[in-house]
Write a structure and sequence with these properties.
- By secondary structure, the chain is of the alpha+beta class.
- It contains 35 helices and 79 strands.
- The strands form 20 sheets. Strands 57, 58, 59, 60, 61, 62, 63 and 64 form an eight-stranded mixed β-sheet that branches. It has a seven-stranded parallel β-sheet with strand order 47-50-46-53-55-56-66, sandwiched between helices. Strands 2, 3, 7, 8, 9 and 10 form a six-stranded mixed β-sheet that branches.
Length: 1513
């Protein structure tokens, strides 16, 4: 290979690697050109001069080039370019911790892109060739290397041999000769992975091993060679030998306009991988190409071979003190300009902190200029003034010390260096004419046209050249970057802006507008028309509230008359260049307005005509200019801000936008464009009056309610109000929406990948079995998996059969595997000593806006749990469910910071889902289907509705994810009901979805395999989740806690030992007792309650009696209509039935055109749906269902009017029908009722205790709202409204607790899962948030007790500061299992170490739960509890006991004292009974209080004089 060819090849490869600053379109174009050159260059190389036939490499390379040349780059280049761009960005970051979040994100992108690249066609042949080349190189031994090298035609090789080729040869030789057994373990593993086929799992493993291997000490020789090769490639195209290394010694902060030394010290390390050129920051000075660099890895410590820039200098512009080389602290934002030039300071510069003086290095290197001749400004030579002083400049009239000063002492002439080059004639965006510099002004009382301050006539400035125009501007104001385009116009001809009319006038009142040329527009000047909210201006995307408008004569297109007249070309005060008007032509086009920062997806906008400027302005912002007379302030407002100056808006208190400012002295009022563009006057569809924008009253104590969301309006902030007598008030967003420039009803659609075929293969006579091995015995996951393969290999007889049989390897949280086995194979492997259990796979079921405000978690309170934890931003919620719908707005990551550093998971691609669907909110998405497929052989993914990917079909997973950690989405409702803001409990927490539940089309059910669930939990433990939310469960009877057949319980145990709180649904089998599931004491088990919200539906009878039923009816009002109850009048032989399930037996004539009353003993919603279908089919107009109360309300199909009442109200209606000759009824649309008198109840369906596995363990633990919860779903779910739906179940209550746990974990990272559970349970409400008793629905309804709601209704704010907690650790769980009677072998395998239970066994009553439950008290018992102080260090708590009826409870001691030495204190509780018969449970409580914290646990006791006796009486 010729040395020139090699250099050219390296140059082209490097160009590909380092051109990362281009946008995608230009990068693809560049990549295509460079790759074509590479192919052409390699093709010209004389490969026949290389070794043959001894070497397999050259033929393979030749074949690979041929295949590569034949590839269709038009269809594949984009994927390849994406990978190259991402990989180069990863290299450029190095291993610097500053970029760790971005680096982790790039790692995830690379894994996903690798999977894409593998699919490039012709993929099999190309990838096969690459693997063959790699295999040949790896397999060569040292003798073959020598033979290969010696057989080469050295005359054709570079002379002398290039350093790169030499290093590569040495590396290949070293790898081939290495004895892996003698190498460090990490290095051996790395080489084994490199030798394997690089599938996605290998890439993930390589990513994990590489950083650990690179940090080995002492450094292996192979790693040294790799470092040298990478250094050689990176440095080859660069001339590095003349570089000067910068080693700043002081880190500088910029605060309040001044520099100061930062408390953060300069970091450096000895990791040479962080010192590669990719981790350098280079500086280019005029006339030099990257002559200086700063290493971000070591700050110059490891670069002794380069010259060092001096860290301290003397400079002629600052003789008073020396200047130090400093570095600006990361992420400080804008600094200020260099003392010598107009450029902003670089990140490394020279400074004097004592004098607040700073210069860029480029200016430091310039020679001193002591004299300057500028005849255009002054006839004499100007001399440099040698002091850092504040003298008034004759050219700009400013007296500041921000620039060197030149002066003529005899003439008393002073000029700043930066003013000497001021232009003579310019044009600025604030004025229509050109302006020219003048050394002084003749007119008096002139004010600057930019800053609006008075002009000093004795100094220079700019004046309009137009005769008679008195426009004047300060020099500095006129040359600001936001008003001047940097063009000197002296001697240039005046350019007239061609005025183009926006429309062509066809006739009077008829125009043809440029934006809608297909139809003519007609002027509508009817000022008295009714307001129509659906009529929006096509330009400004706001409703037509008032005034004239143009409307299309053939379609719905409308324009305000003002918008139709807008000029096509304008200058705007905040931008120096000409702007031209455009409109959105594509639905996928969007931008952020530069003035108001609103997201714009529709309407007209102005765009800068300059090619490289991306400035865009929505027309609503373009229409307002200065002076602005606004209702928020009594004085006119002006755009006086300097470039990048951000004042705080006096209305919204935001500082991100340009502002209109008051110029009256002592008045600092500022108004941003976002606030200025809100309409002052609006209309509301339900009010005939005009609404006015009120700016609030800081002293107001009035109470207002929003007509839309029915929540309180803050009288101290802005809102719309009717000034007439009706007093209607509305939130701004409730009326206008969150996105002002988005059309009503519009939304975004994501692009789905093409579905791939995935057919499950039938395995005869083999079923999935879970082989559980207990706690893993090795920390290396690969080692654990290999041991699983070995066990299967020994059972099945071959490595191939073992690999084919294995479904999952559980290797992170515990050890075990799922495999397809026959019954005999399962029995055989169960006899292996290491195996704890072998059980067949089982399946689980799903346990299916106002919530957080109801629970007291309002973001409006700056001192509450939400704000203290940044809404859980550092917590990761793992959700094991049906998948996720990533396009839902609840997964937006607006305002969310980098992904937490402890996250190690990723996003798996699949059907209609790829890694790009993940973001900083949805950080993980995986799916597990092998267990499901193995048990459902008929499942065919090609025909199935479900997606073989993390994408959700059912909607359940998306719904529960929303409740736990969904982002804020305002103005959401179900067809107008429950309107408000949807958000999760921890709205900035991250969500990781693990899809384990799959839809069976044939059976119309969703099923979840235990094997898949266990694998999901295993992966979640590895990935770094903080809480697992599992809204799944089985039915009673259940398996014991050490029985692997209860997969959730087993996986949860290992998760809890790793600090992960596991929250599970208690089940939907209530109100029967002993039906609660997921009862293991290490799981947080959740019950469901209602909210203080109902959907009242007025039923008006013909006698004017109004009954409020319950429904989700959003259709039109049913006017007075005949009302019937189907019963035999006594003279008919026809069939009649008033039972809801049997309405179909009635003749159609009985129900046609009528509203039907029916009764049902069933409380389920299916009865209502059945009745509605029968009535609708018969031609009826509605149905009233009298039923047992307590079950969730659901809408009826097709929004058919179906209203539920209880039997008492149903009987009242029946009596009216029987007493009236012509009974009639009217049904109104449902509306939302919030707050009193609607009470909170434990839902009927919520499963009840006591615990059927261990009666002494109180279950459920806690309750949360789970009835009619509005949250996101898939867009194809029945009854969804724009991607949102009402759902009920303990499934919905579970993520509510998960969200609270995420907040607590963010606040208390060191708390154990038991401590978190204790904090939630001991601080829960025993009443509703308003102090009213909580009832439990059932037959009959009763006051709720601990078996209904556990500790009570969750109180998040109190749980954050519980004072004391009942903590648990591994030893406590072992005590529990021993006392519960589990065998020592099972316990030992579960916990991973030998366990011997004490003899006699300890009492299960001593298990340190935040509750006391005694199921079988015969006489008396004494038990122990231990409390840990998590509150103030020095605390004293006193006990308060409410004993259960008929029991005596004494506590010793009665006072607990905590201090710095005593953090854990135990106490004893003695309980005795006075009952003489077997009783049911009685309930009391035990509270420890220090007057601030009340730590309460329930005491539940049952007397059993006759033990183990079933009492049926």
């Amino acid at each position: 290979m010729d040395i020139d060819l090699e250099s050219e090849l390296l140059s082209l490869i490097t160009q590909l690697l380092f051109e990362t600053n281009l946008d995608c379109e230009h990068f693809y174009s560049m990549a295509a050109s460079v790759i074509t050159q590479i192919i052409s260059l390699v093709t010209t190389m004389d490969l026949h001069s290389q070794p043959k036939p001894e070497s397999e490499i050259i033929p393979l390379i030749t074949q690979t080039i041929s295949v590569f040349n034949s590839m269709d780059f038009d269809s594949q280049l984009k994927q390849l370019a994406e990978f190259i761009s991402t990989f180069s960005r990863k290299i450029s970051l190095g291993t610097n911790s500053i970029h760790s979040d971005l680096s982790n994100k790039l790692d995830l992108e690379l894994v996903a892109l690798c999977e894409k690249i593998v699919t490039i066609e012709p993929e099999p042949e190309l990838m096969s060739l690459i693997y063959k080349i790699f295999s040949v190189v790896i397999s060569l031994n040292s003798n073959q290397i020598k033979t290969l090298v010696s057989s080469m035609d050295l005359d054709s090789q570079p002379k002398p041999e290039s350093k790169l080729m030499s290093l590569i040869t040495q590396t290949i030789s070293l790898v081939s000769s290495m004895d892996l057994n003698s190498q460090p373990e990490l290095l051996s593993k790395l080489i084994l992975v490199l030798k394997s086929s690089m599938d996605s799992e290998s890439i993930t493993e390589l990513k994990s091993l590489l950083p650990k291997t690179l940090s080995l000490e002492p450094e292996p020789e192979l790693i040294s060679f790799i470092h040298q090769i990478i250094s050689c490639i990176i440095s080859k195209p660069r001339n590095l030998k003349d570089l000067v290394c910068l080693c700043p010694q002081v880190q500088v902060s910029f605060e309040n306009g001044k520099f100061s030394a930062s408390e953060t010290s300069m970091s450096s390390n000895n990791v040479k991988w962080e010192c590669l050129p990719g981790n350098w920051m280079t500086y280019e000075f005029p006339g030099e190409d990257g002559s200086h660099f700063r290493c971000l890895g070591c700050n110059g410590k490891n670069h002794g071979e380069y010259k060092k820039a001096p860290v301290e200098i003397k400079h002629h512009l600052h003789r008073k003190h020396s200047l130090q080389l400093g570095s600006l602290r990361e992420n400080v934002g804008i600094t200020r300009q260099c003392y010598c030039c107009d450029r902003y300071l670089d990140s490394t510069f020279y400074c004097c902190l004592s004098c607040d003086f700073a210069m860029n290095m480029a200016c430091v290197k310039k020679p001193a200029v002591l004299y300057i001749d500028r005849e255009r400004w002054h006839e004499h030579t100007l001399a440099l003034f040698p002091r850092h002083a504040s003298l008034t400049c004759n050219l700009c009239a400013l007296a500041d010390a921000s620039s060197p000063i030149y002066m003529c002492p005899p003439c008393d002439f002073v000029a700043h260096l930066r003013c000497i080059n001021l232009p003579r004639v310019i044009r600025i965006s604030r004025h229509h004419h050109r302006i020219s510099f003048t050394p002084s002004f003749d007119q008096e009382d002139l004010f600057c046209g930019v800053c609006r301050k008075k002009i000093d006539n004795d100094y220079g400035g700019y004046f309009c050249i137009k005769k008679g125009c008195l426009y004047a501007v300060h020099s500095r104001c006129a040359t600001q970057g936001n008003v001047w385009d940097c063009k000197e116009l002296e001697g240039e001809p005046d350019e007239d802006i061609e005025e183009v009319e926006p429309f062509v006038k066809i006739s009077d009142g008829i125009i043809k507008h440029f934006s809608h040329e297909e139809h003519h527009l007609r002027l509508d000047d009817n000022s008295y028309r009714d307001y129509d909210e659906n009529k929006e201006c096509g330009a400004c995307i706001t409703p037509i509230y008032f005034g004239n408008f143009y409307s299309s004569m053939q379609c719905d297109f409308i324009l305000h008359q003002e918008c139709a007249n807008l000029s096509l070309k304008i200058y705007h005060p905040i931008h120096p260049h000409l702007l031209t008007q455009r409109y959105f032509r594509r639905v996928d086009e969007s931008f952020v307005c530069e003035a108001c920062f609103r997201y714009c997806v529709a309407g007209f906008f102005y765009e800068c005509v300059k090619g490289d400027c991306n400035f865009r302005l929505h027309v609503q912002c373009a229409k307002i200019s200065e002076p602005l007379v606004h209702g928020s302030h009594r004085h006119p407002l002006f755009l006086t801000s300097k470039p990048k100056e951000r004042r705080v808006c006096s209305v919204c208190e935001d500082a991100e936008h340009d502002t209109f400012n008051c110029i009256i002295s002592d008045c600092d009022f500022a108004l941003c464009f976002k606030c200025a563009t809100l309409p002052e006057k609006v209309r509301y569809k339900h009010d005939n009056h005009t609404l006015t924008l009120s700016y609030g009253d800081g002293t107001s104590t009035m109470t207002y309610w929003c007509e839309v969301c029915e929540e309180k309006v803050d009288p101290k902030r802005r809102f719309y109000v009717c000034d007439e007598y009706c007093c209607v008030t509305l939130h701004i967003e409730c009326l206008l929406g969150r996105d002002l420039y988005m059309k009503r009803g519009s939304y975004y659609l994501g692009e789905f990948d093409e579905k791939r075929s995935f057919v499950a293969q039938a395995i005869v006579e083999r079923k999935v079995h879970i082989v559980y091995l207990g706690e893993k015995q090795h920390d290396d996951p690969e080692f654990v998996t290999e041991s699983h393969h070995q066990m299967l290999w020994s059972l099945l007889g071959s490595k191939e059969d073992a690999h084919e049989s294995l479904v999952y390897s559980y290797r992170h949280g515990f050890s075990g595997f799922a495999a397809k086995l026959t019954k005999s194979q399962a029995k055989k492997i169960a006899d292996v000593p290491e195996v704890v259990h072998v059980i067949p796979d089982s399946f689980y079921k799903l346990k299916t806006t106002r919530t957080w405000d109801y629970l007291g978690l309002s973001a409006a309170n700056p001192k509450n749990l939400l704000n203290e934890t940044n809404m859980g931003a550092q917590s990761i919620i793992g959700v094991i469910d049906t998948g996720v719908w990533p396009e839902s707005e609840v997964f937006n990551d607006h305002g969310i910071g980098p992904v937490p550093s402890h996250w190690k998971g990723g996003c798996e691609s699949g059907e209609a889902f790829n890694s790009s669907h993940c973001n900083k909110k949805l950080i993980g998405a995986k799916y597990f289907i092998n267990g499901f497929l193995s048990e459902n052989e008929s499942f065919n993914s090609t025909e199935s509705l479900d997606f073989i990917s993390p994408r959700d079909l059912d909607g359940h997973g998306t719904h529960v994810s929303t409740i736990a950690g969904g982002s804020y989405v305002p103005n959401i409702s179900y067809k107008g009901l429950a309107e408000g803001t949807v958000r999760g409990g921890a709205s900035r927490a991250r969500i990781a979805m693990y899809k384990v539940c799959w839809y069976l089309d044939d059976e119309d059910i969703t099923s979840c395999s235990s094997a898949d669930i266990l694998k999901a939990m295993d992966e979640a433990m590895h990935d770094g989740v903080d809480v697992l939310s599992i809204s799944l469960g089985s039915d009673v009877p259940m398996y014991g806690e050490t029985d692997i057949r209860d997969g959730i319980t087993t996986g949860a145990f290992h998760a809890v030992l790793k600090g992960i709180t596991v929250v599970c649904a208690g089940g939907n089998s209530g109100p029967e007792a002993q039906t609660v599931t997921n009862t293991a004491p290490w799981i947080v088990t959740v019950a469901a309650t209602t909210l203080d919200r109902s959907f009242a539906t007025p039923i008006t009878l013909g006698n004017n009696k109004v009954i409020l039923g319950q429904a989700m009816y959003t259709g039109p009002e049913v006017g007075f209509t005949s009302l019937v109850y189907p019963e035999n009048p006594g003279n008919s032989n026809a069939n009649f039935s008033g039972t809801c399930e049997e309405l179909s037996v009635n003749s159609n004539l009985t129900m046609v055109g009528k509203v039907v009353l029916c009764f049902t003993p069933s409380p389920y919603s299916a009865s209502a749906s059945s009745a509605a279908r029968s009535v609708k089919k018969a031609g009826g107009l509605g149905v009233i269902i009298a039923r047992q109360p307590g079950y969730a309300i659901r809408p009826c199909p097709d929004d058919f009017p179906c209203v539920a009442v209880d039997w008492e109200l149903g009987t009242d209606i029946l009596l009216y029908i029987r007493s009236s000759g012509l009974p009639v009824v009217k049904i109104k649309t449902s509306r939302t009722l919030i707050g009193q008198p609607v009470g909170t109840k434990v839902a009927t369906f919520s499963s009840r205790g006591p615990n059927s596995i261990a009666a002494a363990i109180l279950k459920p633990d806690i309750a949360a709202p789970g009835v009619s919860i509005l949250a996101a779903t898939t867009t194809n779910t029945t009854f969804n409204d724009q991607g949102f739906i009402m759902m009920s179940g303990t499934s919905m209550a579970t993520p509510a607790i998960s969200g609270v746990v995420a907040l607590l974990k963010a606040l208390h990272r060191d708390w154990s899962p038991a401590a978190i559970r204790s904090a939630i349970v001991t601080t829960a409400w025993r009443t509703d948030p308003f102090g009213e008793q909580i009832f439990a629905e059932g037959s009959p309804r009763k006051l709720a007790d601990p078996f209904d709601y556990g500790g009570g209704l969750v109180n998040p704010e109190k749980a954050a500061k519980p004072g004391l907690v009942y903590d648990l650790g591994l030893e406590d769980y072992v005590l529990y299992m021993c006392s519960a009677g589990y065998n020592e072998s099972s316990i030992s395998q579960l916990v991973g170490k030998a366990t011997i239970c004490s003899n006699p066994k300890l009492s299960i009553l001593d298990f340190n739960l935040p509750s006391i439950t005694i199921p079988n008290l015969k006489d008396e018992v004494t038990l122990t509890r231990t409390l840990t102080n998590v509150g103030p260090l020095d605390s004293v708590y006193r006990v308060v006991v409410e004993p259960p009826l008929g029991f005596q409870v004494t506590v010793e001691p009665k006072t607990l004292v905590f201090n710095s030495q005593t953090k854990r204190v135990s106490f004893k509780v003695r309980i005795s009974t006075t009952h003489k018969i077997n009783t049911g449970y009685y309930f009391g409580s035990l509270t420890w209080s220090d007057s601030v914290h009340n730590v309460t646990i329930h005491v539940s006791v049952r007397t059993q004089i006759l033990q183990n006796y079933y009492d049926e009486n």
